[in-house]
Fold:
Amino acid sequence: MAKTLTTTAGAPYASNETSKTAGPRGPVLLEDYQLIEKLAHQNRERIPERVVHAKGWGAHGTFTVTHDITKYTRAKIFGEIGKKTEVLARWSTVAGESGAADTERDVRGFSLKFYTEEGNWDMVGNNTPIFFVRDAYKFPDFIRTQKRHPKTNMRSPEAMFDFWAGQPESVHQVTILMSDRGIPKSPFHQNGYGSHTFSLWNDQGERFWVKFHFRNHQGHEHFTNEEAEKIIGSTREQYQEHLYNELEAGRFPKWTLFIQVMNEEDAAKQDFNPFDLTKVWPHGDFPLIEVGELEINRNAENYFQMVENAAFSPSNVVPGIGFSPDKMLQARVWSYADAHRYRLGTHYEMLPANAAKQSEVQHYHKDGSMRFFSNDFGNPDAYYEPNQWDGPVADPSVMEPPLRIDPEAYRYPQEVTDDDFVQPRKLYAEVLSDDERKRLHQNMAGAMAPCSDSVKERWLAVLERVHPDYARGVREAAESQPAIPVTDNTPVQAAE
Ligand code: NDP
Ligand code: HEM
Structure:
């Protein structure tokens, strides 16, 4: 027999279909609380979407250690070969709203929450090893160029290429975005990169700089622009369909986690800044070291509860894993929790997606809106620290080793130098095949087609600094494509 429908206070409903009215033709009585409650809840069903990475797809999985890296880190998640840790994953596009089509050309977010016995460790990365900018000051401006124009309310290629032309260090990431990897066939057909330099530290108090790479087992598969357009014409949810159906069918995607490691002393000797998010660490100099395997194997039972409510943050590290001087990472460390308090509420950490599963949460933060849980440790007197009630105390054994830093505080200018073009040049000239280069030229020419001539020329001058063939290839592709009116999605007052 079906259970009885009740109000949120547990009282049984007499009807879920008919309003309480004065006479059969109405009006409705104000005392029909059930109706008011139902409509009021509907009004509150949406929460603010993520300010970036709003469209996403998520699922549960398992991480298994396959190789010993205890000489680099004391983190218990890596404590022994065979050790398994539960994981929540979310992939996303960056710019689109929560209803955006899945197969749009964009960087993909690659977020993982590892529920370790020492607390949650989040890796909030992308499917690219680098980023468009290297100083957090530029992040909000960059994101605005990806979102809608305030007047036209449309995406603005003029703004995108204007910004990139003014920040030539972005060319490395723009090259990947416009390459085949700009539209992966599914979240499973892409790698994940921690992107920033992080740190590992071991029981002896030694610190190592590190990059995280999750290489996929499914192969890199991509859609061309034309294929993606066709798919969007028939379904906007291609990734969600693929993800959901594959997992329900028992076909579980996998990634191998590798790290690249750099000693603290070696960091000073590199001819590039190893903390610059627009640069990779060349594999030849810093080989990939295998660590373990990530398998995604279970759909969320409730998408809103586990995926929309998920709060990933680079600030979530555990003993043995730490940050680095990377300026962008430093800003991200505080920005995400701030966003979560706004998007989800003060106690977002205790929502099912975010609550630690393998470690006890014990802190002295009190009360506040939606304090729906207790952590009073069984003693209501122990609500401050220090106290005589045996309340929780800090553990100095998990103190990170000290870090020597430059004592001169200053706003150091980030000039663009020839160094900024070395790695994109290698990608363009040595990694991409002739066919991949051709598609890169066409994709980029198509993306900048609606821009003004002045923006196009400024961007082509950036490509010229990478490689003359790059600029020439994009120019020729642009000339062979049909002209698009500049005003389509360009503000009229754009500089000529
Ligand atoms: P390698 O030849 O060892 O590495 C080349 C890398 O390029 C591989 O990791 C490959 O990824 C990746 N790659 C292939 N096609 C594309 C594409 N369309 N978009 C982005 N990446 C692609 O040389 P280096 O390590 O010296 O790197 C050379 C250049 O490759 C770098 O300057 C950088 O632009 C790019 N790159 C480097 C990475 C790194 O961490 N060193 C990571 C990704 C890109 P995979 O093997 O996973 O298929
Ligand atoms: C999401 C800020 C750079 C990857 C977000 C969110 C904010 C944010 C506020 C929304 C969080 C939420 O509501 O849950 C910033 C700032 C950056 C920055 C200030 C630079 C200073 C980056 C970089 C990467 C990245 C460099 C990747 C290497 C992601 C991902 C998400 C995200 C994957 C989605 C997380 C999820 O799946 O819920 N970012 N970001 N961001 N960001 Fe960033």
